[in-house]
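ENTRY TYPE: paired fold submission
RECORD: A
CONTENT: sequence, then C-alpha cells
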Amino acid sequence: MRRFFHNLFELLEMIKIGHSVLALPFAFMGALLAARGLPDARTIFFILVAMVGARSAAMAFNRLADARIDAANPRTAGRALPAGKISRRATLLFIGVSAVLFMGAAAQLNRICFALSPVALLVILGYSLTKRFTSATHLVLGLSLGLAPLGGWLAVRGDLGLSVLVLAGAVLFWVAGFDILYALQDEEFDRRAGLFSLPARVGPTWARRLAALCHLAAALGFAVTGRLAGLGPIYAGAVALSSLILLAQHLLLSVRGPLRLPLAFFTLNGLVGLGLGLATWISLAI
C-alpha cells in the first residue's frame, strides 16, 4: 500500500496535477455560456471528472513519449521517468485509467460528448509527437486546450455557437503563445536534437514576435467572445486585466530571460483562465 501511494504521488507530481487550472476554467466557461448561467451539479461534476481525466492522460503520455528526449536534456533529466522514479508500466497503466475516466465521464454527459471523446483523445495525446516533424506543434497544443470550452458547451447543448467557437480560437492562440515562449528555454537543445520547436527553427527573436502575435489574437478573441455573448463590463474588465497579464509575461521575459519562465507562466497564465471564468460566471449571474 505504501508503494502504491508513493507511485501515485510521483505520477501526480510528474503530470503537474495542479496545472489543471490552465484548461479547467475554459471548460466551465463553455458550459456557462451554453447554459446562460450555472449548469446543474451533475453536469459540473462530470465536466470536472472528464477534464481531470483528459489532462492526466495527456500529460502522462507526454512524459512517456518524451522520456528519452527528457533524459538527454539537462533541464528535464530529473523528471520522474528519466530519473527512474516511476516505471513505464505504471505510467502506461495511469494513462489507460485516465483515458477510461475521461471517456466514462463523457458518456455520463451525453451521446455526442461520448462519441467525440476518442477524437479529443487523439488530439491531446497526438500533440506529444508533433514536435518531431512540425513547427506547428505549439498550435496543436493550443488546439488541445481549445477543445475544453467546446467540450463544456457540448456537455450542456448538442450544438455549437459562434461565441464558444471564438473562445476556443482565443484559447488556442493563448496556449500557443505561451508554449512558444516556454520553448525558448530549450532552443539550443531542440536544435541539436532536430526537434521542430519554433525557437529552434526561426530563432528567439522571431519566436517571441510570433508569440506576441498569438497573444494579441487571443486577447482580441476573448474580447469578441464577451461581445457575442453579451457579457458586459465585468467580463470586459477581466479581458483587459488578462491582456495586461499576457503583456507582463513578455516584459518579464525581456528583463529576466527564459530561465524565469516557469514561475511566470504557471502563475500568470493560471490567473488568465481563473479571471475570465469567474467574470463569465458573475456576468451571467447578474
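RECORD: B
CONTENT: sequence, then C-alpha cells
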Amino acid sequence: MLLRDYYRRVVEGLSIAVVVLDRRLRLTFMNPAAETLFELSFRKAHKLALTELVIGAEGFIAGLRHCLENGHPYIERELQLTFTPERIVTVDCTAAPLLERDPPQELLLEIRQVDWRLRINREEHILAQHHTTRALVRNLAHEIKNPLGGLRGAAQLLERELPHPALREYTGIIIGEADRLRNLVDRMLGPNQLPNQGDVSIHEVLERVCSLIEAEAPTGIRIERDYDPSIPTLWGDADRLIQAVLNVVGNAVQALEGCGLITLRTRVQRQYTIGPKRYKLVARLDVVDNGPGIPAELQAYIFYPMISSRPGGTGLGLSIAQSIVNQHGGLIECASRPGETVFTLLLPLGKNG
C-alpha cells in the first residue's frame, strides 16, 4: 500500500501529462498535469472517449488504435491537438500498451506540451535575425556614408566654380539626392539609444497612437480597444514606444486599404520568457487587423529593412519598430492569414522586467 502511494505521488508530481485509455480509448486515469493540459478535472473526464476531448486528430486516433492492436509503442512529434476552435496545443506524444494482459486492454499515453519550446526557438531566431541584420546595415551604412559625404562635398565645391546658374541645377540635384540617400540610411539604422526613460503606461502610448491614427485614417477604418486596466507601468522611452506602436498600427491601416477593423488588445503574461531571458511580468499588446494578410513568402522577412508587400513601400517601419522594442528588452512577433493579421508586441514590465 505504501509503495502504491509512493508511485501515485510520483505520477502526480510529473510535469508531463499522463493519461490511461481503455480499449475503446476512454479515459480511465489522468494526472494533474493532464488535467491542466485538457483544462478538465479527472472527475469530469473519467470514461469520456478521447474523441470527445479533442477535435479531429483522426490520424492520431488511428495510430493509438493500431498501437493497442499490435502491442507496439507509437510516437508523434509536434502534433497539434485541437481542444476548442480557439485552443490548439502543440505536443509530443508517446503511447505504449500496458502489457498486463494479452491482448493489452489499456494504453498509457504521455503528452508533453512543446509550444513553449517552439516559441522560444522562434523568438531566439527572430532576435538573432534582427541583430545580424542591424550589424549588416551598420557596416553597409559606414561604407555608403563615407563616399557619400565626399560626393556631396565635391558637388558643393563644383557648384561654387560653375559660371552659369543653369549648370548649378545639376549640382543641386546631386546634393539633394546625396542628402536623401543619407537620410534613408539613417532611417534604416533606427534609433541608437533611449535618452528619455521613465515609467510609461502602455495604455497612454496606445491612446496617443489612436488619436494620431484616427485623425488621418479613412472613415472606413474602425479601431476597437480591448484593454486590461491592471497592467502596471514599464520602464522605457514613451516617445520611442509611440513611434514603434504607430509604425505597427500604421502598417495595419495601410493593409486595410480604407476599410476594416483594427483591434488593440493588452494582456499581462506572468513568468514569461522572451528569447533567452525570463521575466516576472510582460505586457502583451496585440494589434489585430482583418485585412487580406501578409503573403506567406514574405512572413519570415517582414522585419528586414527594405522588405514590403506594398508597391512603393520602404519596408523600414517594422524594422524600426522591432529595434525600439528590442531596446526595451522586448520583441515583436507576427502571425498572419487571410482575414486576420496579428502583430504581438512583448514588453517587460517594471524597471528591471
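NOTES ON RECORD B: The chain has a mean pLDDT of 83. The chain has three domains: 2-113, 119-189, 197-348.
STATUS: closed
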